[in-house]
Amino acid sequence: MRRRNFLAAGATAGLAMATLGSTAAATRPTPAEPALMSGSTPHRQGVPQTLTERSTATTSPPRMVRPEAGFDYVAVRSSENAPRSAAIRFEAPDGLTGWRSLHFHGGGRDARPATAAALTPAPAGSTGYEISAEGMDRAACVAINLQDGGRVRIDGRPEGELYDDTATDPRGGLLVAYLTRAGWGADESLRFNDEGEEEWPTAYSPVQAITVHHSAWEIGEGGAAANVRAIYHLHAVENGWGDIGYHLLIDPDGGVYEGRWSGSDPMPIFRTIPLPGGAEAVTAGHVYQFNPGNIGICVLGDFTDRMPTERAQDSLVRTLRALCWITGVDPVEEIAYVNPVNGKKAIQQGVSRHRDWLPTECPGSTFAEHFDTAIRQRVARGLV
Question: Which CDD domains does the protein's record reference (predicted)?
């Protein structure tokens, strides 16, 4: 068996990720996005501290919630099951917007109660929001401000590469460049409690499957890296998980982002350099009760009524192909998944959709309908 080479957190000169744009809110200055840098030199930068304002919104009838400060996203959480249907509208500079559907993601960490939450960007300059929800009289809401907080210093290399060495892979084409946690501006203090203890200690299991999700909301005007920071805050702090629930995330331009913290070495997802059949992934929180040994990739956007962009699809195929090549997972082969912690079992294909595991709309109806031909079969053809 040929050894697979895994290079992390040190991008080769000449390889670049898509530039992440940033648009300022009408009344606030444009924040500096994390800089992208080639080379292996450690990187120091600053990102705004995430500010939040929590409220309880009356949903029947809807009543306007007006946060005291500006906000970029609103998170809506339910302590029980997700409402049958829910929507949000904003008080924007030009008046009330139309109602926007909220798509809730459930689950999370296996050892915690299931969490249902939705996240949505706010139009620039919004001063308030209303929530309408069927079957839920009140909703716990959080207005998230990603621009106005004091600067948080972020250390570390901003880019890395996940790929199979062309010296051992005669086909080539499996290189995946990604933005590290430092690259997108992860505030690592969010992973720890007041006593300095890690909220979600790492645990590892042999890789059995890979699962694809959508975030179920659009990217706000602050850009994709800010969107990842909003998801990170929602998962780590508001949901109480201690970290982001996905291993990797992909934006509409095809940019790849490191997710769940996997240890102090410069290697995402895995415990150590992986070999096919022997790769161990850090346990994340993306398929409730079926997380150990299950790599989760989230494509940023809502794909209920449309497909991801071609760049996002191409990036997803390339990333899945590299991960299948590295781990030995066959994307189309049927597997008998067994959770090594709780014993739960499922019959799935090696690369599956979130909805294949649990009753959920994820990764969106349109994307789910075309997933096999648009993604899984393309991954499989590239591995022949």
Answer: PGRP
Angle at 148 between CA 147 and CA 151, to 5 degrees: 90
Instruction: Return d(Cα 168, Cα 176) in angstroms, integer.
Output: 16
Q: Is the peptide bond before 113 cis (omega within 30 degrees of 0)?
A: no
Domain boundary, last residue among 113, 145, 177: 145
Tell me if 180 sits within 8 A of 158, measured CB to CB.
Answer: yes
Q: How many domains does the chain have?
A: 2
303 located within any domain = yes
pTM for the model stands at 0.88
Q: What is the CATH number of the domain that holds 173?
A: 3.40.80.10
Residue 126 domain flag: yes
Q: Splitting the chain (384 residues) into consecutive groups of 10 residues, what average pLDDT does each group show?
A: 37 28 33 38 75 94 96 88 86 96 89 91 97 88 96 92 59 78 96 95 97 95 96 96 98 98 88 85 97 98 97 97 93 98 98 96 97 97 87
DSSP helix/strand/coil, 345 = strand
Q: Report the alpha-carbon distance of residue 94 to residue 79 in Å, rounded.
A: 34
* 180: Cβ contacts below 8 Å, ≥ 6 apart: 8, 9, 156, 157, 158, 159, 160, 258, 266, 268
- SS3 track for 322-341: HHHHHHCCCCCCEEEEECCC
